[in-house]
Q: What sequence folds into this?
């Protein structure tokens, strides 16, 4: 069970660690590439990546073949989609090991159905700003989120 501070707010220590997870996509480059670039053929992936970068979040790719990938990890292209229960358990265990308290997930149901319950079992809070949206609506929502982050950056400057 997470520790609580004097105001009864759950915490796992001094600071909270938040990361973003974005799904892999069917469209991929044909050659071995870093995970951050392998899926560049997909407009959806580029939008998801742009959002997490604009938000300044540490991020990972949820890969159907490789599981949880840091963006700099070089991988071979593959033809798989979605994650299974074992991949979800492995990803949740790794995030817990990294001390993650909160995860922002930008992924479809084939990625979240198994993953979110595993994260919640470990006391990791989940944020889904695009939950239940079709790809077209997810793209529009990501455009809005990117604009909001860029506006916040201008205000903070």
A:
């Amino acid at each position: 069970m997470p520790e609580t501070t004097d105001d009864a707010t759950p915490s796992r220590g001094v600071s909270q660690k938040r990361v973003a997870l974005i799904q892999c996509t069917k469209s991929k480059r044909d050659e071995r590439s870093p995970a951050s670039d392998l899926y560049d053929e997909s407009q959806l992936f580029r939008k998801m990546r742009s959002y997490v970068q604009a938000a300044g979040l540490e991020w990972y790719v949820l890969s159907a073949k490789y599981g949880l990938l840091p963006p700099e990890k070089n991988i071979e292209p593959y033809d798989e989609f979605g994650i299974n229960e074992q991949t979800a358990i492995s990803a949740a265990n790794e995030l817990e090991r990294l001390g993650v308290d909160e995860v922002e997930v930008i992924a479809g149901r084939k990625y979240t159905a198994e993953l979110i319950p595993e994260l919640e079992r470990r006391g990791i809070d989940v944020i889904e700003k695009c939950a239940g949206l079709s790809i077209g609506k997810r793209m529009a929502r990501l455009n809005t989120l990117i604009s909001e982050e860029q506006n916040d950056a201008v205000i903070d400057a």
Notes: The chain is about 40% helix and 20% strand. The first strand starts at residue 3 and ends at 4. Confidence is low (pLDDT under 50) at residues 1-13. Strands lie at 3-4, 10-11, 18-23, 33-34, 58-63, 67-69, 74-75, 102-106, 125-127.
